Amino acid sequence: MARANKKNLAKKRSSPAGRIAREQPIAPEPNRLLKVWRRVLERRLRTRLRAPVAVEIHDNTHTMLTFQRHRALWRVRLHHMFLTSSDEIIQALADYVRAGDPSASATLDRFIERNKAFIRRMSPAQMRKRMRLEPAGQHHDLGRIFERLNERYFRGRIDAAITYGPAPRVTRPRKSIKMGSYSADSRVIRIHPALDQPMVPRYFVEWIVFHEMLHHVYRTRRGEDGRRCIHPPEFIEHERRFHDFSRAQAWELENLDLLLRARVSA
User: Which is the CATH superfamily of the domain at 124-261?
Assistant: First the structure.
């Protein structure tokens, strides 16, 4: 009886149906597919950059591409829309990462615009809920500055939030400093924490905040050459209406080194 059971079992194992069941391909898991596509993308970029490349794929709603070089290694963070890009887009990525090529930048902007349907949609309010907003500094309260400028110049119509940005990790002396930024997606103004110092006059901080508020009014557009125009003529003309425009510009010219040397605690 025992031998008969083994034979029957052997027949079941060797039956055509059993072979078909074993030969059916197993569908790869999404994470496994993502790893495969990421590795292919790394190889494609490595061939063009002629250097090691580590790619990280994300699902951000605003920043589609960031990169940095650590010795010989390029670390590139990309939105998942780039995973199956054409050779033209991969070459543009390489040219932009290597040298910030303007033509490559325009190509990437057009690609992102064509594929914006892949960007997860979130309302500005939803985005801000995920952020840590800290407008009150030790020396300058950005919230109060924003409110007063909003009433004085915009009749309270600027619907945005403001905060100090995170303290950047700097190991070497700065060569440049981005004192402010505005995100049109989240409607958040970020001010560099280096401005929260007693030696930085209030009128200068006000000018930087005013500048970023204007980005809420005048959105980025493309010029006739296809390049992005961040500061159109009407933006520049409007900025000159700031009450301390000339004094703020003069202070920046005289004290830029002070801001570049500023040590900001995290």
Answer: Metalloproteases ("zincins"), catalytic domain (3.30.2010.10)
